[in-house]
Every structure is written in structure tokens, then in C-alpha cells.
Sequence to fold (454 residues):
Amino acid sequence: MAAEEKRKIYVLDTNVLIHDPQAIKRFDEHDVVLPIVVLEEMDKVKRGFDELARNVREASRYLDALSEGSDDLSAGCPLPGGGRLFFELNHRALDILPEALAKGTGDNRIIAVTMSLQKERADREVILISKDINLRIKARALGLVTEDYRSDQVVDDIDVLPTGSVALDSDTWNAMGEDMQVEDGAEGCHYRLRWPESLPMPHLNGFVELPGKKELMLRCVAHEEDGFVQLHETHSYYSKRNAVWGIRARNPGQNLAMNLLMDDSLDMVTLLGQAGTGKTLLALACGLHQCMELGLYDRILVTRATVPMGQDIGYLPGTEKEKLEPWMGAMNDNLSLLLGDEYEGLGSELSQFKIEVAALSFARGRTFTKTWLIVDEAQNLTPHQMKTIITRMGEGSKIIILGNNAQIDTPYLTAHTNGLTMAVMRFGNWLHAGHITLSESERSRLAAYAVEVM
Fold:
């Protein structure tokens, strides 16, 4: 009996399954209850080719497999973690709702089921799981325990997201100099030194800021088992002579970003930053240089998350480029700056610059070979969508993922759960990936000040 009391009962809202089709597997030994209205709401959105419809169909297939393997649904379907799944069919539960709540809405029917279970199973803790903030507020006002769905969180604390650089003070740098070995390299000095145990180890392809001028940056290229690291001097893109497609670095963060973008040994670069920090401009400039002048890539493919991503763009008139143009304002502005008078907008002929514009909703099933792929507004992608895109990358390609976690527009996504955060965390210490967070706005003094005060 004691073990039974410790097992919780989780009531799931529809948006949990839409967000994570495998959510039912995530509740360990506890029981899961699906109100019948959840199945009805899923049935309304299961048709279509967008991500939402795919998730609903995947969740439905899993529920079908669970229910098919159960002899008595009233006793619940066994779950992988040891709990059981129950389908709640009690329509009489609506009588428990206060008069202020309409009895015909799906949200209130889910609340009613939760209230009934709490009353009937006083020996068990009943928790309503929903990604809908307003639903959670209503449920708490009625005395229910409710939580956000957290199993999809990439990080618990967004502050642990790597910035891509570590700053050293003079005392630390001088102490590290006792075991330092220095050699000359093609791009500058190479250092091998023991990293202090008191400091977090820099990520591979992360940067170390030396004391004094911020321009003094070293790049971490290797970790050794004995606590030593190998650091290389970075290339300077500050001068007009070293400009890339006419663009030069205006601050240390942009210089580090260009070092990553111009390194053809990296398969992925993630750039985070507030509006105006130059993410899109740098990605396009470096892509044009390596595609048009160096011939490392056959094309530049530019795309971004439409909100909601995967929504059918057929409702807009024109070609795929013309349909995407309302979403691609930032790309338009930057391409106009880089290409000058020859550029007339996304509807113009971009093939002369080997540039293509595509909708992310058509990424599934494709393979991008020898492609410089720029994914803008990546903070609006789910982890599943991000995985779909990254796994489309073929040989000789490079993916540039741009985003700003302060501007998330997709419902139910946060900085803790989106695909941008997942990409930064999962590839943060991979030899062929690099990351930097840009913090200084270069758009205008007005834009820079607005970022600080608004």
C-alpha cells in the first residue's frame, strides 16, 4: 500500500503529446491519465504534412500499440517505466466544475477530470501536466497541483549555456605560464599549457581571452588527458585588408565568429546573440566568400523558421521564394548590403550568386551536399525539428545556426527547450563544431542602447 501511495497520477493535456509524441514514456513508475477530450483534440489536427500533424500521428500510433496489447483497458495499459496508462471516459466529471467555467471547452474538461481524480483518489498525488500557462493558472486557482512538461528541457539553468569564450586574469595567465610550451604555427603561436582545475575547461573550438586587450584571443583546439590544453592564436579580421566579402570584424565577438565561419574543418557553427550583433551578415558574407571565391561549396541555402514552422506556405501567392519573402526580411536586408545594386530582393535571380532560398518544411527526406546552409531564427525550432535539419547534412557541407533566445515566438517553446539550445549543448564539445555568443550590437547606437534599456 505504501508503494501505491508514492506513485503519482499524471493527467496530460493535449499540447504535451503534440509537443513530445513520446511523452507518455517519460513518467517512470507513475500512472498516466489521458482524458478522452485529448484524443478528440488530436483527431482534429492529425491530417496534414506539418510538424504538428506528424507529431499527433506519431503519438496516436504509440497509443494504438499500447491499447492493442492490453486485454482490459479499464485496468490500464502497461508503460515502459512500470506505470499504467488510463483513458478517462467519465463525462459526469463536468458537474464538478464551478459555474464560472464553461463546460464545453477542452481545457475545462481536462480540469474537470483532474478534479474528479483528486477527489476519488485522495490517497494519491494527482498532477495536471500542461504547457498551456493559462490552463495551469486556472487549475491552481481551483486547488489543483499542476506542472509544466519538463522532460523536454535541454538545460535546467539557461546560465550554463556556453558563451564560447573564457576570460583569464593576469595572475591566472602568469601561473599557467610556468608549464607553457610555445611553438610557431602558420597562423601564429601555438601554446600547450596546463589548465587550472579551478576554472571550467574551455570547449573545443572555444576561445580564451587573455588579460589586457580583448583582441588577444586564443582558440582551444585540443584537450589532453593530463589536464593540458592546446591553444592557437586566432586570425584577425579587423583590418580592411582581411575583410571577407567587404565585411570586417567590428568587435572581438565578431572576430571570433569569423574565425569559426571561415574554418572549413568545422561542420557546424552556432551563433547566439541579441538583435543587431551581426549574426546573419557574418554568416552570409563568409558563405559568399567561401562559395563564390574559394569554391568550397556549391551553393548557399538560406532558410529560417516560419512561425509556426512547417505551416503550409501554399496559401501565399507566387513561387516558393516569393512565398517566403515575408519571412525573410533580415536576409533581404543583409543580401542587399552585400550584393549591392545587383540585388533586387528574394524574387530576383539569386542563382548567379549561388544562393537559394528554401522552406524548412521541405527539409525532411532531402540531403544537402557541398552546401553552406544558414538556418536563421533557430530559437523557434523544436529539438525534433533541429535534429531533422542537422541529419540532412551531407558530405562537404556546413550548417550555420543563428538565433536569439530572447525572441522566441513558437508556442510552448522556451530557451530551456528549443532546438537552438539543444544544438549548442549537444555539439558544444565536438571537434568539428564551434559556438560563440555575440553580445555587442553594431546595428546603430540607437539599437545598441535599446537592447540595454528595453
